[in-house]
UniProtKB/TrEMBL annotation:
It comes from Nephila pilipes (Giant wood spider). It is an enzyme of class 2 (transferase). Belongs to the NDUFAF7 family. It is found in: Mitochondrion. GO terms for cellular component: mitochondrion. Arginine methyltransferase involved in the assembly or stability of mitochondrial NADH:ubiquinone oxidoreductase complex (complex I). GO terms for molecular function: protein-arginine omega-N symmetric methyltransferase activity. It catalyses: L-arginyl-[protein] + 2 S-adenosyl-L-methionine = N(omega),N(omega)'-dimethyl-L-arginyl-[protein] + 2 S-adenosyl-L-homocysteine + 2 H(+). This is Protein arginine methyltransferase NDUFAF7. Pfam families: Methyltransf_28. GO terms for biological process: methylation; mitochondrial respiratory chain complex I assembly.
Amino acid sequence: MSRDVFGSRGDFITSPEISQVFGELIGVWFYNEWCKVGSPQPFQLVEFGPGRGTLADDILRVFSKLTTIDLKFSVHFIEVSPHLCQVQKAKLCLDNIEEDLYGKTLLTKYDYPLTWHPHLVNVPEEIFSLYLAHEFFDAMPIHKFQKTPAGWREILVDFKNGELQFILSRNPTAAAKLLIDEKEKRDHVEISPGSGILLDDITKRMREDGGITLIVDYGHFGTKTDTFRGFKNHQLHDPLKNVGDVDLTADVDFQFLSKYANGKAIVVGPVTQASFLKNMGIDARLQILKLNTNAESQKSLETGYDMLMNSNQMGERFKFLALFPEVLKDFLKKYPPSGF
């Protein structure tokens, strides 16, 4: 990725870009859950696909304000775009170096060290981790399948007459045989095996080293069918046209994530974004912020609140899912996670 796809100039406007309250409440949630399990140190925040770094900025600000002691705390970004690494560095760090940031550690403006990595495998192990995936799983590769009178067929991409086009496989592919649930009732499904592999890695780390995971994304619970689409300049765009210049996405199947993680971690949720933020006190936080701002800023806060909470905007479409180590099963029954 060689450009910034987030914000008003990109193709995606994300919740952290809309209102600081969103990131603050996620920061409060992580801090609260970390405290509930005994405030283990050292610990680290691991964010997948941090975008511009806006969400991490809000979370780190919360951590710096809530803590009264020096923390043995570090931040790790998993980012495949060198360009976005530079954007994140400009947002969070005071250092102006322009060189390759992978494997580099810089001090943030909150005095927490930040390191960039291309993959989770590069992130230090044997440390309690707070894993955050906000609008990350929607960008994971998917397999698409269509039910036909002859059975399930995979939707493939072919090149014909100088153009890319979708075609159906002539016979069941290996992916169709391995991935389709025998009880599947839909006629069209999208499955992301890569998401399952990532969940394997995360839950293994949580089981061995301790940790908490929060997944936030737009998606459904095993109900939608054909959601794969492209965006260019904030408009829907044929995903097979202008390849490389179009941002591709598909709604996250939270039923798939939940089923896949079940038995490897304690799965909490999913709940809607509106429900999570309401339970975390967004209304009270909004009123506090409005007390210290002018009329124009108050209007901006109210507009952002509506986008985050309105069922016709992000409130219902976005979901929150949390994962905890199985060793906390009895503890969570007594002290359930906030927000859910």
